[in-house]
Amino acid sequence: MVQERNAVRLLVTLEDIDPPIWRRLVLPSTWTFDRLHLVLQAAFSWTDSHLHEFHIGGLRYGNPELLDIGFGTATTFDYRTVRMADFIDRDIAFTYVYDFGDNWRHRVVLEDILALDPLPRHAECLEGARAGPPDDVGGPWSYAEFIETLQDAEHEDHESNLRWAGGHFDPEWFDLALINKDIRNSFRANVRRRWHQPKPLIGKSSKHGD
């Protein structure tokens, strides 16, 4: 008996950032896009504190109760009713937008359709590179300036930006185990989202992706 294809592998990359910030994820194909949203929030260490939507084939997918009031005239299709499986027969890439002010755009590429036995209960990050930017840092171009100020102790914004980052921020940080822990917790009610990177122990280096 041939195992049914029941999962998807996605490559997700933040646009307009160099060197790239990316994650490779596997999740059940029957999951709806509101669940994918929560996985992406955890994978990039976002805090789910802003509006968001998906752009797929020229259409908008999100929560119509939030997005059809004052955020454009195009109809928003309810992402709670649309599954990844509805798109797996297509060669598809789409966009996930988080925070309409900072305009963080994630390019999501459907790399493969998998037959997993057993099907994992949770999504999983297989690999990735670099830390997700802090929330409210201002978008890709402001993020570049933010990194510059952290690297220059004499910059007038150095101390304030360091405090904003929780006292420590390494743009090369990537801890696969911790990110997967965040992903596993992403569907829990009243989950406390991690706002900042863990500070490295004295004498220990941060874990880096490639």
TrEMBL record:
InterPro entries: MM3350-like_sf, Plasmid_pRiA4b_Orf3-like. The lineage of its organism: Bacteria, Pseudomonadati, Pseudomonadota, Alphaproteobacteria, Rhodobacterales. Residues 7-176 form the Plasmid pRiA4b Orf3-like domain. It comes from the Bacteria. This is PRiA4b ORF-3-like protein. It comes from Alloyangia pacifica.
